[in-house]
Design brief:
With 193 residues, the chain is of the alpha+beta class. The protein has seven helices and six strands, in the order E-H-H-H-E-H-H-H-E-E-H-E-E. Helix 1 runs parallel beside helix 4, helix 1 packs across helix 5 and helix 5 packs across helix 7.
């Protein structure tokens, strides 16, 4: 398998709810988390920790990735494990909170809506959803001018937790068959429940 690469620039951004959820996860596990994280960040990225992070704010993807890496370093755990947990926490916090109206008892309906609403949460790329069977589907993230393995792994955790929230009795499976971080044209994620 080719090594994972990333491309971060200055235009890709995500809504503040994602970073807010990741920082809440960190605050529950790290004493004086803002200062602990700042020790692992450039002054530019650390400055974001000083101000309020509102759901309507657009946060640069590079800043979110840097903070996620700082969280992993501060808790001294394998980064991919932490990124996946951050994604799970983001789904739980946001889909039981500010975005509860986006959830559905039917995961297909949720993922179809999520693909349509992608531009409201990420100002880059495009999401597509295809039903693969009665209890499975495929998410494709295409036209990704900026990307990072940290963001992709966090997304897998998000999809896992979202499915578990919608269908707690199901055996949730989320796997990635292609990724722009490995040179593929799109990130392709299979989900089943």
């Amino acid at each position: 398998m080719p090594p994972r690469e990333e491309r971060l620039g200055s235009t890709a951004a995500v809504k503040g709810t994602m970073l807010e959820a990741h920082l809440r996860w960190a605050a529950d596990r790290i004493t004086d988390s803002a200062n602990a994280l700042a020790a692992h960040l450039s002054p530019e990225h650390a400055a974001v920790l000083k101000g309020p992070i509102l759901p309507i704010h657009w946060i640069p993807l590079g800043t979110v990735v840097a903070i996620d890496r700082a969280i992993a370093a501060a808790v001294a755990r394998p980064p991919d494990e932490v990124f996946r947990e951050l994604g799970r926490h983001s789904a739980k916090l946001n889909l039981e909170g500010v975005y509860k109206s986006y959830t559905s008892e039917d995961p297909h309906a949720f993922f179809e809506k999520q693909a349509l609403l992608h531009p409201r949460f990420c100002n880059f790329g495009r999401a597509e959803y295809e039903r693969m069977g009665p209890r499975s589907g495929r998410i494709s993230l295409v036209d990704m001018p900026e990307y990072s393995p940290a963001f992709c792994v966090s997304g897998l955790g998000y999809y896992e937790a979202a499915l578990a929230l919608m269908n707690p009795a199901a055996t949730v499976r989320v796997s990635e068959s292609a990724c722009v971080c490995r040179g593929d044209a799109a990130c392709v994620i299979y989900v089943s429940w």
